[in-house]
Specification:
It is built from 16 helices and ten strands. It is an alpha/beta fold.
Length: 372
């Protein structure tokens, strides 16, 4: 018995054979490798399942094969500064793999003057009259990045699904000083727009919040690329190619996805594995079940007013502003919530006066699972 191998994948960050190139990764790679470009920071945004991690992964996998690049993907929840130091300490241009500070009391140190002796580039033993620790992780990281550059290596730091934590703020602040000093260090992150915007929100209760926002100005000014819906002709072509269907059937399948990358992969996988006697209609329940699990993460993150706007949009049916407003309790707030939900990637506005949904069968999810 021959086992069919499904070319579609639901694994985050994995493109699979039916990958549709949206051009973001190529742009980033081209700019980073060009001597004429002055771009060092990219933020890849989009909905969950839009393909952010795939573009992120393509940048990572391409540049880590280049001997001139040191590529370090970091966990969003980890201690980025310490992890980067650990990564860099394993590189062959670091003559001593150990970073160590030893502080002792020695009567020969007069007047609080430190006596320093060193071995190699990293291991440093400090003797001081006071039992104080002179080691600073941020200074060590800065020194290591400088050493990498002297060895003709570019350093690329990457964080997938980034969110604001004390450690990520610290890491970004340190990288900001590296850009100011002309170091060849680069940054690529992916994440939801709201999670990236959190880095720039000033909390009036936090006296240090404004200083943090200023120190991350380089991050705010860095290029942002939103992963757009996949091209309809590319989707239809791949469905014809990998599912062995005609153009009409491929068009029907595309219409069910709205160009949403996750839906494209889910529907392709279900159709590939369906029984010979089954039709598109037969796989819809499984299609909805899988999509709705993802939507159940998005919906609770919306405010009540945003949820009301989305309900009003679907009740209006046409996508026209006046029809959505007709169902809103405060129609005067239409523009504000339209813009917010476009920024959060729930809608696109390619035609004046109209909105277009980005999530297939989202209206069904709301009707069935989101009681008002």
């Amino acid at each position: 018995m021959t086992v069919k191998i499904d070319p579609f994948t639901l694994t985050p960050g994995v493109a699979g054979k039916p990958y549709i190139d949206c051009g973001i990764a190529e742009e980033i790679i081209a700019n980073f490798k060009s001597e004429e470009s002055s771009k060092y920071v990219y933020k890849i945004t989009g909905l969950r399942g839009s393909g952010k991690s795939v573009e992120y992964g393509k940048v990572l996998q391409t540049l880590e094969k280049d001997e001139n690049w040191l590529v370090y993907p970091l966990a969003a929840e980890g201690d980025g500064v310490e992890t980067l130091i650990s990564y860099l300490s394993q590189e062959d241009f670091i003559s001593n793999k150990k970073t160590e500070t030893l502080v002792t009391t020695n009567a020969s140190a007069q007047g609080g003057i430190p006596i320093i002796s060193g071995k190699g580039s990293i291991e440093v033993t400090k003797t001081y009259s006071e039992n104080s620790n002179f080691y600073n992780a941020e200074a060590t990281l800065a020194n290591m990045i400088a050493m990498a550059n002297k060895n003709n290596r570019n350093v690329l730091v990457m964080i997938d699904d980034i969110s604001k934590t004390e450690n990520t703020v610290r890491l970004l602040s340190v990288l900001g000083t590296m850009f100011n000093r002309g170091r060849r260090v680069y940054l690529v992150v992916s994440g939801l727009s709201k999670n990236i915007e959190d880095f720039f929100v000033i909390n009036k209760r936090d006296s240090n919040s404004e200083n943090i926002s200023k120190s991350l100005s380089f991050f705010r000014r860095g290029d942002t690329r939103e992963v757009k819906p996949l091209d309809k002709f590319d989707i239809a072509y791949n469905y014809e190619k990998f599912l062995d269907v005609d153009a009409e059937e491929a068009k029907k399948l595309y219409d069910m996805t709205l160009g949403y990358a996750y839906a494209y992969q889910v529907l392709g996988s279900l159709y590939f594995n369906k029984g010979e006697s089954e039709t598109i209609k037969d796989i819809i329940p499984d299609y909805e079940r899988i999509l709705f699990k993802s939507y159940n993460l998005d919906w609770p993150e919306l405010t009540d007013a945003e949820q009301e706007f989305i309900r009003s949009f679907y009740k209006g049916k046409t996508g026209r502003a006046k029809d959505t407003k007709a169902h809103m309790s405060k129609p005067e707030s239409y523009n504000a919530y339209r813009d917010r939900l476009i920024d959060k990637h729930f809608f696109s506005a390619n035609k004046r006066g109209y909105l277009k949904p980005k999530l297939p069968r989202f209206d069904r999810f709301i009707k069935i699972w989101c009681d008002e």
